Amino acid sequence: MAAAQPKPLTGAAVARRLARGCWSAFWDYETPKVIVVRNRRLGVLYRMVQLLILLYFVWYVFIVQKSYQDSETGPESSIITKVKGVTTSEHKVWDVEEYVKPPESMRVPNAACHSDEDCVAGELDMLGNGQCGRVEGPAGWGQFLGKMAPNFTILIKNSIHYPKFRFSKGNIADRKDGYLKRCSFDELLDPYCPIFKLGFIVEQAGENFTELAHKGGVIGVIINWDCDLDLAAAACNPKYSFRRLDPKHVPASSGYNFRFAKYYKMNGTTTRTLIKAYGIRIDVIVHGQAGKFSLIPTIINLATALTSIGVGSFLCDWILLTFMNKNKVYSHKKFDKVCKPRCPSGSWPVTLALVLGQAPPPPGHCSVDRPPSPIHPGGSHLGQRAEVGPAVLCPLPCPISAPPEQMADTLRQSLPHQDSTPTDPKGLAQL
Question: Backbone phi, then psi, for 211, in 5-degree steps?
Fold first, then answer.
């Protein structure tokens, strides 16, 4: 009679079996197993990976990035600027308020001249020089624009505050002897004298002053406050940098100009003169970061460093189980699956040492103590009696009870396969 063929599992049954397997595996406990592999190249690789990870955290994370500190970026800042500069032309004294003059146009009445007689000094223009060029030029205008403007000075007063650390500081030295009246900025000698010449700013930005003044442009003065508050306040100093901010090589939007109006009355009528001025715009940008030691980021980064060292073990395990010649042997030694024995309730407890074979099973109700019985006639000592100690017969699963005759037969069947020499003198003496 042919055996019945097993029915194929349906999709629902497969899904239930898979779900049960996943649910059972979810509650498994995994513990690492230590295996010592005596391979010099693998050991060198393991230590090198650990060394690189350790150097990364010590040098970059803790020294460069200062990850042991609590930090704050974007300080509260205030800026005050003041421009100073006085120069003279042939008939006039110029100051900052009069520095920007409107360009002249061919459509201005009597502005065009054909000879020096058409341009009498002091008539059409009080600053006229009496010489006819493309337009009637003001006396000393070109020299003023090209030579005097770079010497104009700009005072940039800046104060910052870090509210998290309650730290405030400014970029001007705390002195009362008229220090600002005679100083000029020098990164090494006078870092707390924020008085800059206009020509110095343009030069540090890498631009030509004459071209920039003619077409206009935007120059950024960037002040960086990078402060380590674990040190003294004197170690927190401003760092200045300069660069051009507007697109220089885009013809449609290069340069800088603005319009403003001047109002005056002529014959009782209010008149306005609209001026389109080209010039140099200064934008002051302040940013910075402050840091101070804190226990919480220190603990977090130390824990991260110690955890990351385990990457070396993961990498070497992957090489060991993938590329080594005896990878299957290593895999068999590394991964063990230990299942809990199925014994009935009331039997001896299952311990981890017992499961791993490191301890003998304790006696329980499954142990059978047999009285002395004669050895099988086929034994080596015919006619003599031998005594044996307690025999532990507990197969898995362990039987709850068995008839004495069955236990005796089992004992007799096992005796010919045992060594005739007693292995438990203590048990023999007790019996």
Answer: -65, -40
